[in-house]
Amino acid sequence: MSVQNVLSLIKEKSIEWVDFRFVDLLGKAHHISVPAVEVDESTFANGVAFDGSSIQGFKGIEESDMVMMPDTESAYIDAFTQHPTLIIMCNIFTPDGERYDRDPRGIAQKAEEYMQNAGVGTAAYFAPESEFFIFDEVRYETGINKSYFEVDSEEAFWNTGRKEEGGNLGFKVGHKGGYVPVAPTDTQQDIRSEMCRLMMEAGLRIERHHHEVATAGQGEINFRFDTLTKTADNLMKYKYIIHNVARQWGKVATFMPKPLFGDNGSGMHVHQSIFNGDTPLFYEKGGYANLSEMALHYIGGILYHAPALIAITNPSTNSFKRLVPGYEAPVNLVFSKGNRSAAVRIPVAAVTPKGCRIEFRTPDSTANPYLAFAAMLMAGLDGIKKQIDPSKLGYGPFDKNIYELSSAELSEIRSVPASLDEALDALQADSEFLTEGGVFSQDFINNYIELKRSEAKAVSIRIHPHEYSLYFDC
């Protein structure tokens, strides 16, 4: 969409405000709204100024002036504002016109450019499956003398005896019993459908939606793949719509990986492939799962760099509450066709040559999508460049149910890091694949590690409620 097309859209839809947005290191969106009557060609040429020192992980107060440069291709109409508003995603630049090397969206674009300049392919396609919970209520507090959380859902199995419903209507979702039941067990068909309707109005191609495995309102909506940066934009749009529709319905949505103890968590399985024009480069008939040698090398790069990669794709302390055996979490660094217990799965059902792809199942939605997709692409490209053969490194293929292996067999399989600190240690030791072509700067990586270490420390020094159960009577 050209600048003129955006300006025409503003007039055609009687837009009153233009909402310019950017994304911080943690993957959170920020915005500045400008009256539509003040937006013209110069706005797109000169950008919108903001204070970078007020954004965590960006600039110091002595060099705080920054500029948002709008990307007209990202424009869509906000479904939640009373006054007609157009949303436009932006890249971040310094006042002298240089790309800001800590801008996640800019890093995503540099990863795409690096792949193209290396002659690997013309486009990398991504499709995330971002799971979420829709709760009726959430309460939490942490302080010097108390620490707790509590969530609730009308469909949760722990509410079979609840009286507050005015006569309990039953049909609760059992523990791990929530995969695709129909109503009345699935109480959230209409709210997910409303989310999908607004996503389609905002330009997403929706493929399906359904209830997920966990009790208490776990769901999933799948939207169609696109190129790396566009998919990251779409995921930001996806989360924005889910959060706000839930709020309109008097509920609350969360993409937190493990909000419930003892039931399945929420992941973000990421499907990936590379094309050269219209030609799929991951397909080769007759190969393992019809994968090309390039695809296998890409998998090799993902699995070889996985410990460091996970610091970016699973960047929260809560991520590692999900990455434990027994809850469909892919903790084992192997690849397999159709096997959901592997970190890398190759879908084989109803797959065409153009649909041939790999699926990295470890990530979750605490990840900044621009950084996570860029890091995955860089790991895969390193595998292609170095011709990393995953089979020779012991990464599979592994077509057994890994969760049913003996301890001796499991000891032969490399696992994901056990904590955020371990993942950050791995990133500190293995980051050269990210800095190739200047995609990630070393300054960015050092700053990112420091920011995430502070999160890990903030959690580790606080008293956990379960410690009272274990130790109060000592």
UniProtKB/TrEMBL annotation:
Q: Which residues carry this modification: O-AMP-tyrosine?
A: Y403
- Pfam families in UniProt: Gln-synt_C, Gln-synt_N
Cofactor descriptive note: Binds 2 Mg(2+) ions per subunit.
> Superkingdom, according to UniProt?
Bacteria
Where is Mg(2+) annotated to bind? E129, E131, E212, E220, H269, E359
Residues making up the signal peptide according to the UniProt record: none
Task: Provide the top EC class.
Answer: ligase
The protein's annotated catalytic reaction(s) are:
L-glutamate + NH4(+) + ATP = L-glutamine + ADP + phosphate + H(+)
Quote the InterPro entries the UniProt record gives: Gln_synt_N (IPR008147), Gln_synt_N_sf (IPR036651), Gln_synth/guanido_kin_cat_dom (IPR014746), Gln_synth_cat_dom (IPR008146), Gln_synth_gly_rich_site (IPR027303), Gln_synth_I (IPR004809), Gln_synth_N_conserv_site (IPR027302)
What cofactor does its activity depend on? Mg(2+)
Subunit structure and binding partners: Oligomer of 12 subunits arranged in the form of two hexagons.
In Swiss-Prot or TrEMBL terms, this protein is called: Glutamine synthetase
Organism of origin is: Paenibacillus contaminans
What gene makes this protein?
Answer: glnA
